[in-house]
Specification:
This protein has 110 residues and is α+β, with helices and mostly antiparallel strands. It has one helix and nine strands. A hairpin with a 2-residue loop joins strand 1 and strand 2.
Length: 110
């Protein structure tokens, strides 16, 4: 029983360490302008996006294919964890400025 408990604890610690080791990609949003507009990530590997709103208005990172949505106040930074993706393209947008072409972005998993 003791060995099983130790194995479970170690596997849990490994999962936490793996999540902490996830690659972080930076995205800046400034009043409807995404920089960069395209993030290239490895397929089948979890990662995080550090989203900074350097604009004067609120921004909302939204991705329907990824089922992610996060409002970010002016001057604030937030981390969005993304599970491992299959190879492909996944669109996202600053929903508060979605009519601007510069507010459209995509993640390309290769």
């Amino acid at each position: 029983m003791k060995k099983l408990l130790v194995a479970v604890l170690l596997s849990g610690l490994a999962a936490v360490a793996h999540a902490e080791d996830a690659q972080v990609y930076k995205l800046d949003i400034k009043d409807g302008v995404l920089t960069p507009q395209k993030l290239e990530v490895p397929a089948d590997k979890a990662f995080k996006i550090e989203v900074k709103n350097s604009g004067k208005t609120a921004a909302e990172f939204e991705s329907i294919p990824l089922k992610k949505e996060k409002v970010i106040a002016p001057g604030a930074t937030s981390i969005i964890a993304i599970k491992a993706l299959k190879a492909g393209e996944y669109k996202f947008v600053d929903e508060f400025h979605e009519n601007q072409p510069t507010a459209q972005g995509k993640i390309v998993a290769k």
